[in-house]
Amino acid sequence: MKVVLIDSFYLEEFGYEIEKKIFADHNIQFKMENCRTKQQILDCCRDADVLLSIYTSVDGEMMDAFPNCKGLIRYGVGYDAFDLDAASQRGILVCNIPDYCYPEVATHTMALILNACRQVCYFTKQVKAGKWNDNSGIVMRRPESQTLGLAGFGNIARLVAEYARPFGFSMVAYDPYVSTEVFQHYGVRPVTLKELFSTSDIISCHIPLSKATCHLFDKDAFRLMKDGAILINTSRGSLVHEGDLIEALRSGKLAAAALDVTESEPIRTADHPFASMDNVILTPHMAYNSLEASGEQHKRVAETAVRILSGELPWNTVNQKELLNHGYLRNRR
User: Fold this and answer.
1) Domain ranges of the chain
2) Quick one: fold of 2-100+291-325?
3) Domains 2-100+291-325 and 102-282 share a fold
């Protein structure tokens, strides 16, 4: 049995000691590759039983080149790097690690919300430049006078709601897959997507990226939002049409944006429009990051691979329904 990590260079500073031990304990060969092209992946992973990926995409053509592949596991919550339909048609389990960093992402979301509301980064920059101005024309509002809108109400968004409640925000959320009882439990009012746009002073994105949600936040969405609204995104960059967001920020339609993810990431150039915009707060896709979360991430990836190779159906299999529809999983426990 062989497990191959496609793109180990992304987290090489962690050494993968946790995975090495777990796989060695189960007599599973573990190979760490540094594939940067599709051809390198095809050459290095042909005999893999399970493929691990940090950020690298795997499509149907690649899956056809891996005849032994039983599972694809992503080091993270999002799984849009994998062609889910193609995997399901081939009987390949797709797994993510959905819960390893709930507190980290929720905490980072709250940090961005408060930073954007109080413009901490902007005033820090002003003071460091020798400008001591306690106003600068920026309108500040108390949390209890604002409505926090949550786009998506899964586990991370629910934790954000718990963190935000003591500040006094009124809260609404859009998620057609969540029951009324869950909204009531968290003291959050369910609304339609249009109502979310029109009633929220701050909108925080917590929706998975899919074909249906790509560019969900575009010029039409921004047009529906309140003048001076704030957008927070710790989910996926392509949920937001970057060009439309830039225009909404430049026009003053939106007061600010605080982004841990961007459509064009990584941003490595000072001439990116965001770089010169004082009303944009940026962090480098690190909301998930903590010492505790990292250990959980590496452990759960390895444990998931072991379960797949043991003939089990891991609880974090995201395409279970699709596999059943295609007639697979009959021999899975």
Assistant:
1) 2-100+291-325, 102-282
2) Rossmann fold (3.40.50)
3) yes
Q: Catalytic positions, please?
A: 236, 265, 285
pLDDT digits (tens, 9 = 90+) for 166-192: 999 999 999 999 999 999 999 999 999
262 torsion bin: left (phi>0), alpha (psi -120 to 50), beta (else): beta
Q: What tokens were used for 250?
A: 């430049």
Contact criterion met (CB below 8 Å) for 201 and 168? no
Whether the predicted pLDDT of 333 surpasses 70: no
Class for domain 102-282, per CATH? alpha beta
CA distance 30 to 75: 15
* Per-residue model confidence as pLDDT tens digits over 79-111: 989 999 999 999 999 999 988 999 999 999 999
**Chain centroid offset of residue 88 CA:** 22
Residues 258/249, Cβ–Cβ less than 8 Å: no
Q: What is the pTM of this model?
A: 0.84
